[in-house]
């Protein structure tokens, strides 16, 4: 198959790019592929909202920029922060034109929320399913666009580069070029190649590297792992954001998210004794940035020997809670918790990867003709910790910027037609799926126990030794058995786990989301860690 523009991932980042490109080039083919259903994305699970300065009389770009940089703990790219904050409102207006509906007050004005780390009310939301509403609007627009083809159940195995033509490719190779991808078409169960002139990775996050995560099962870091295998640059992988308040339900995966907006509306964190503890850790109390709140909860749990704390919403009126958070209300009720009478048990869960594929301010990766945006990318916006509700904003801004940069390059590019077919010679069907499923469990256990909210040098060393063994076992399996989505996802999360641990080992300090008790202070020498 050949396509002018290939988009891998159907979340807000990929669809923003696809729609803009389709309208700019009505005569060109845009192909969007996704490994499950089109609406099963990290975007869909984003509850809280999207941050943007919509009224400069009440808010300002400078305040949003400052809030973002404070949360990022000294590692934000200041130029990129300014770009996203200032271009963001225009992107929000565009998705409203596509039909996305955000909540309004009785005066007909947008009802703006506030979350941890924000100095003003600037978050647009649609109840507690904002991402799902934005995804709906974009998919509806895609359906009306004649030159976009969307293929479900198409699992990307690897990026095609000069490596597949027999050339030696290393990280120092100056002109690594993307020619397309190899995919496992789950509809036909065949491995096919898709050749493209321009490819955009919008493959989402990697929360499934951890035992407890708010991410859907598809979030296995596929794009990051593929770029690393292709010798592209990866950055700041040690900064994994744990959302402080996932609903505590042992054995449930993914964990149900209790959006930060609940605390923005007055929810109070309490320990097992009913004590409101956040004032001991930060003057912003329950609205401190996520890294601070997650570590505070982790500390309270360890001191008390409990597996969760509580979020107290009993003082919020039933009418107000149901109006703003209907899905959270129903979910809690389904497991026997009436939020108007009982506190909600919550604990931190892996939520967002602040690092990823290193890109510039136009979404360009270190591999030619390959762009990345959304959670899989490291644009420089988040630094060491993402400010709440900046992720959907970043995805749309960089989807737009990647489109602007790549739209006119297409005329100078052609397909690389001498790419070999996938070679599965010498492989056979896997005899035991337990070899894969057990390795996934082992990886998630190692990452959760040793590379979580609080780290030490000894834990990281142990994690690396165990990952080395898992890597060796899985590569042996990969060479001898036919490719399956389960095997590919295992390879990818092992690679992601390795990158997280390697970045954490290099960072001999505590900054943002990376907290190492052996190195509690900040270093003025360390900046971004590129792998």
Query: What is the residue-averaged pLDDT?
Result: 93
In sequence order, what are the helices and strands, one letter per element?
EHEEHHEHEEEEHEEHEHEHHEEEEHHHH
Q: Between the first and last Cα atoms, what is the distance in angstroms?
A: 32 Å
- The third-level CATH topology of the largest domain is FAD/NAD(P)-binding domain
Task: Write down the Rg.
Answer: 22 Å
Structural class: alpha/beta
Helix content: 25-40%
Q: Can you tell me the CATH superfamily of the largest domain?
A: FAD/NAD(P)-binding domain
For the biggest sheet, the summary is:
7 strands, mixed
Low-confidence runs (pLDDT<50, min 5 residues)? none
Number of domains: 3
Percent in strands: 5-15%
What does the overall shape look like?
globular
- What CATH architecture of the largest domain do you see? 3-Layer(bba) Sandwich
- Compute the number of helices: 13
The count of β-strands is 16
Q: What does this 3D model show about the protein?
A:
- The chain is α/β, with parallel strands linked by helices and 531 residues long.
- The chain has three domains: 275 residues, FAD/NAD(P)-binding domain; 102 residues, Succinate dehydrogenase/fumarate reductase flavoprotein, catalytic domain (Flavocytochrome C3, Chain A, domain 1); 73 residues, Methane Monooxygenase Hydroxylase, Chain G, domain 1 (Up-down Bundle).
- It contains 13 helices and 16 strands.
- The strands form four sheets. Strands 1, 2, 5, 6, 7, 8 and 15 form a seven-stranded mixed sheet that branches.
- Helix 1 runs parallel beside helix 10, helix 5 crosses helix 13 and helix 12 packs antiparallel against helix 13.
